[in-house]
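Exercise 7. Given the encoded structure of a 334-residue chain, write a plausible sequence.
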């Protein structure tokens, strides 16, 4: 890994985008088509599909997508519409299916592997073949326990997309971490402002003074990584052990970390809508869901070592309160 201290990375000539890129509906509509229909979009964690039949529903670029685990244990993603009349199949944001998905309109029924297995009265239609009407699938990829979808069948292969991050977070055991908390924020700001705010801390001394007592903003270093990623680390200021209200570690270590990383917090944006924060004792991942040109929804999920909740000293609320205060000020600023 190659890092460059943030204070040494400033470049002459950098400019922000014109204001209309953060407020104009026509720009937002173009982003949906040119960005969100062609990029790998995080829709959650693989752990949310714990057993066959588990599913989640996500809306990406105006299209509803079902992500599920089928009866054989394979992950799959489909457009959330029946092949008959386009009725939405799953209304709930998550749940557990038995062995099929049934349309609530005309009862067309699909196996979890997408096959149409029931179509009432269609046997009376000459030439009708159920094999010709499976659910339309969506590209799905698992990276480090996170699930990504892509509308574009001709997109850059996910393995190539994520290749620059290979082994970046190996010490943190990301696929094994346990999600212990989920918080959602409705933010009156364009999605790009949220990503931009996350990726710089020059505003921290004025907007987040309590953050600067734990993570001095001048301690940052940028990861000179290739690809659609931006990130690096900040040093945890002694005698603090983590970014919490008390400054103490709130859970077991996420993994076996090198000595230097035991004193660092890592922050990465995986464009266009995922952010990943890793501290020695807990992690948080965020998905940003664009609602309009001036509104977004941010979903935060807290992760700890799977043995942490039962261990002595566990106090994830210490970290939650610290970041909840930080988020609210950041979102007000955005």
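Solution.
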């Amino acid at each position: 890994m190659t890092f460059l201290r943030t204070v040494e990375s400033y470049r002459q000539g950098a400019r922000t985008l014109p204001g209309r890129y953060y407020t104009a509906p026509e720009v937002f509509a173009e982003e949906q088509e040119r960005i969100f229909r062609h990029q790998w979009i995080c829709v959650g964690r693989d752990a949310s599909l714990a057993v066959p039949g588990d599913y989640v529903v996500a809306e990406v670029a105006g299209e509803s997508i079902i992500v599920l685990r089928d009866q054989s244990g394979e992950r799959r993603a489909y457009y959330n519409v029946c092949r008959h009349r386009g009725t939405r199949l799953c209304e709930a944001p998550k749940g557990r299916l038995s062995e099929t998905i049934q349309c609530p309109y005309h009862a067309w029924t699909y196996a979890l592997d997408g096959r149409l297995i029931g179509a009432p009265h269609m046997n009376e239609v000459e030439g009708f073949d159920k094999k010709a009407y499976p659910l339309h699938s969506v590209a799905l990829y698992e990276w480090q326990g996170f699930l990504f979808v892509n509308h574009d069948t001709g997109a850059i292969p996910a393995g190539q997309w994520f290749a620059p991050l290979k082994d970046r977070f190996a010490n943190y055991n990301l696929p094994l971490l346990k999600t212990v908390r989920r918080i959602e924020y409705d933010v009156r700001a364009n999605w790009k402002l949220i990503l931009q705010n996350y990726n710089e801390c020059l505003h921290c001394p004025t907007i987040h003074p309590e953050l600067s007592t734990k993570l001095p903003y001048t301690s940052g270093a940028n990861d000179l990584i290739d690809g659609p990623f931006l990130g690096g680390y900040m040093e945890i200021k002694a005698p603090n052990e983590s970014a919490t209200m008390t400054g103490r570690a709130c859970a077991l270590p996420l993994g076996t970390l090198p000595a230097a990383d035991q004193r660092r917090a890592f922050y990465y944006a995986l464009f266009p809508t995922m952010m990943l924060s890793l501290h020695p004792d807990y992690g948080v991942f965020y998905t940003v869901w664009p609602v309009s040109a001036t509104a977004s929804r941010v979903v935060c999920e807290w992760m700890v070592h799977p043995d942490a909740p039962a261990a002595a000293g566990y106090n994830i609320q210490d970290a939650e309160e610290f970041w909840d205060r930080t988020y609210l000020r950041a979102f007000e600023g955005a």
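Remark. The first helix runs from residue 25 to 36. Students should compare their own answers with the one above.
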